[in-house]
Amino acid sequence: MSEPLLSVQGVKTYYGNIIALRGVDVTVNSGEIVTLIGANGAGKSTLMMTIFGSPQAREGRVIYEGKDITRRRPDEIARMSMALCPEGRRIFPRMTVFENLQMGAIVTDGTGFDRDLERVFTLFPRLKERLQQRGGTLSGGEQQMLAIGRALMSRPRVLLLDEPSLGLAPLIVKQIFNALRELNRSEGLTVFLVEQNAYHALRLAHRGYVMVNGVITLTGTGKELLKRDEVRAAYLEGGKGGVEAAAGH
Fold it and tell me: How far is it, in rounded angstroms, from Cα 214 to Cα 195?
C-alpha cells in the first residue's frame, strides 16, 4: 500500500503550558474524504491549524507527500498544494468576491485563472452573481461558499476544511456538502474535514475519527461510526431529524 498523502504522527500541541493535542495519529490517503468529529473544545481546530503550521507541534511529526512539514511556515505549506479553509470563514470583508478569489490564486503561477474561476462558479453559482459585491455584505452561506472557493483557487491537492456548516441553514449545508462530494468524485480532491455536524460529515466521509479532549478515541469508516452506539449517543441524538429532513431522507 502506498504511503498516506497526509500523516499526523504522535502530535502534541500546546498553548503555553496547556496541552491541546495529546499524541494524535491521523492519516489521510490520496482521494479520500476523512472527517474528524468531536465536541466543541475537543482540539479539532487545533489539529487543523497544527497541520498548517500555526501553532507548530511541540512533539511528533506532520508528513505531507512524504515530506516532514512539522516546522514549515503556513505560507510555505500553502505553496505545497495544501489549502486551509478556516473556521469562521475569514474572508476579506472589504474586498469584492472577485478580489477574494484572486487572493486564493496568489500561490499559483497565474495560468489557468479563468478556468479555475469557472470551476468555482460551477460549484457555487451564487458567487458569480455576487462577483463585484464586498465579501462582508454576503450572507453567512455565501461567505462560506466564498471561503471554500478562495481555497480552491489555489488548486490544492488536499483541502483542510474547518467547520463549514457552522451557523448555516440546513439547505445551504446540503449544497456545500454536495459540492465537496462532487469535487471528490469528479476530480479526486482529497478532503480533511473537521465538523460538529457529525451526521452530515460521516455520511460524506470515507473514514472518520472521533476526538475527545485532544485524543483520538475512535476510528472507522463513516458508515461504521454512524452505527456506533457511543457516537450516536454523543453526537447524533436530538439533532439528526432536522438534518435528515434537509438532506431529503
Answer: 15
Cα-Cα-Cα-Cα torsion 14, 15, 21, 26, nearest 10 degrees, comes to -90
- Which tens digit of pLDDT belongs to each residue from 184-229? 999 999 999 999 889 999 999 999 999 999 999 999 999 999 999 9
One domain, residues 97 and 218: no
Q: What is the CATH number of the domain that holds 23?
A: 3.40.50.300
pLDDT in tens, 80-126: 999 999 887 789 999 999 999 999 999 988 789 999 999 999 999 99
List, in order, residues 6 or more apart from 120 with CB less than 8 Å away: 101, 127, 149, 152, 153
Distance in angstroms between the alpha carbons of the first and the last residue of the chain: 36
The distance from CA 55 to its chain's CA centroid, rounded to whole angstroms, is 17
Contact 224, 202 (CB under 8 A): no
Distance CA 182, CA 190 (A): 12
**Would you state the cell numbers that stand for residue 48, as one nine-digit string?**
487543523
12 located within any domain = yes
